[in-house]
Every structure is written in structure tokens, then in C-alpha cells.
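ugh ok fine here u go
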Amino acid sequence: MTAPRVLLVAPDRSYRTGAFVNAGNALGIQITVASWGQTPLALNQGGIRIDPRSPASSLPRIRDAASGVPFAAILATDDATVPLAHEICLELGLPTNEPSALQASTNKLRFRQACKEKGITAPCFMVIEPQAPVPSNIAPVEFPCVVKPLSLSASRGVIRCENQEDITKAIPRVRTLISDEDSKGDQRVLIENYIDGDEYSVEALLHNRELKIIAIFEKPDRLSGPFFEETIYVTPPRIPKRTENAICSALFQVASALGFREGPVHAELRLAADGIHFIELASRTIGGRCGRVIEFLTGVSLEAIVLANAVGQPIQSKQQAGAFGVMMIPVPCAGVLRRVEGITAARKVPGIVSVDIDIREGHRMVPWPEGGPYPGFIFSRGNDATQVEASLREAHAKLCFVTAPEIKVEVT
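structure:
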């Protein structure tokens, strides 16, 4: 029996590529990587280089690569490759989400518009064009409100505004960030009502339109602004079973209404006084290294679960006892890193699985809303979510990031 073959579409130097390749090897799934790096990543069936200036121009090469042993599925590793993976699926006649889901997954304005069109609960919103002046009236949006870019993840560029003065400062700030990130991207800015409530994240999979929940993450830190840097995720969440069921049911309804049909789904939502409000739905897995928590929870890596789902292959996973969590270490201040103290002490805290510091000496540290990436991650496990959260906070308290001011030099 021929092993199933999957095309993995990945940006240059994506940290997820290796994880998917390792998972494919363990499952007996052949992985071919299509990437826009300088050279193709030659794995089992040879890599395919994508021209970053014209991704669609790579479709003929991908079609040729599929002519011998067809691909069973196409997977995108990151937000940046979701649109191209969708195009490839259409080109090869493979199952994929509807175009409406692609738009809602990659554009916050289109997500809000689609929710409104389908009668899905959503806040009032408005969009500001790139060259338009800062509005003096944001009705029907009310204060407090949130200003955000149409793309970017991890809450970058998201700012809560209490009044007109805040709006006047926030919109230019978000526009600068958007321009710095991608001068050719969508430069519009979204303004919407602030949704008050506890925030949760959901990892799920779709196959043949059937939804399977992998995990619901609680975010115990109150994300109330003015910026929304995420910190702690714990699972299982400390909510009643009926609330879990309501979240699962609402996610299925929203995903179905917006045309999500196949592959991973990452959802962000808030439990408000008037019900469940979805902040976003993305056709990808959770960002950063947070996916490691899925392996603690199920005994199987997130990448293996996604790959097996894509090819319709059963996979043996088992819900592990206890609770699990991760802290995305907040950026403490702006500056240039000199050293990180207290790592050994943090690793000795009971319940801590690992403390991974990604940032290195000499790297810039940029706080939210412009910020990113996180300096590192702390992982924990325990008997329950309360114990896990306490371990994460204790370990984080032992870390000290020593920085120096950033000196800007102008060359004339």
C-alpha cells in the first residue's frame, strides 16, 4: 500500500516545518514541502520552491509534482500560506474550505462582514480607509472600542480606546505598524465595539464537514486593554460542562455558516453577558509553541493529529489526566537584551515541564501592541488548572530580563 502524500506549504524558515516532517515520518506519511525560501527543502519527494513575488506562478510545478503520485491533502503551516494552500487545493481538486471561509480566516473585516451577513452575533464595526482622516464620529460603534489592523495575529496592533482622544492616537499608531509590516498589504483599520468578557481559545479539526474539538484553552489573565498581549493558556478550562458544550455547538454553527469545511480551525472567543462572541476563526493551528500543550493533553503531537486528519488516517490519542498550561512570556520592556537571569530557578518550580528562552543577547525587545515575538515559553502540568496557573506564575516571577536602552544611529 502506497503511503499517503501531503504537500506542506510553508513560509521561509517556518519553525513548524520540522515538526510536521517529523510527524509525517512517524505516521508513514510522505511530506513534500513547498516553500519560498532561497532554495527548496528537498525531502522525501523533493522540495518545491515558491516565488514569493508571485506564489501562483508555482502552480504548474506543483501540478507536475502531483502527476505521478497525487497528493492526498494540502496543508498550510502559517497564516501567510493559507491562501496559496487554498489555491492549490482548488487546482488539484482536493477538499478545502469555501472561498468565504478563506476570506473570513485571513481578514478581520471580512470576518465581521460575514458574521453580519449570516446573522451571527458580532459587535458593531466600521472601517477606516488608508488615506481617510481620523473620524470625529465613530457611530454606530460606541466607547470603549477596539482599533485593530485587518491582518496580523497574536493581538498585535490591537488597541482599546476609551474616548476620541484615544482614537486620534491609536489609528496613526496602527497604520504605522501595518505599513512597517507590509507596505503592500491591506492598509485599512477596523474599529469595533469592545467585548467585555472572559476569553478562550479553541483548537478543532474539520473533516468532511464534521467538527472535532481537540482542546479548549482558558486565558486566566483578564485581557481588557489598552493592549492585548496574551500570556497564559490552561486546559481543561475551569468552566461548567454545559458552557463547554455551548462553545462547541456555537463553533460548529459559525464554522458551517462561514464555509469552513476541511482542516484545522483555531478560534478565539469571549463569553460575554449576552452570550458567545467570536473574535476570529482561522484555518490553521494555534500559533507559537503553544501547540506543545496538545501533546501533553493527548499524548500525540498537534502536527500528527492534523496530518492524520488530513489523510483520513485514524490516530491513537488518549486524554491525559490532570491539567496543562503554557505561558507566552510577556515582553517586560523595550530595549536590547543583555541577559536573562533566574532560568534555573524557574525550571525548579514544582509542576514546570520546561522553560524555553528563545530570545538571545543583542536582540531587540518590543512591547505590545507593536511587539513580537515572545521572548520564550513556560510549560506546566498539574492536578488541575489552578495548580498549573500557579506554577506558571511562580516560574515567571523568578525570571529577570536585563536590558539596555536601544540607541538609534542615523547615518548621513
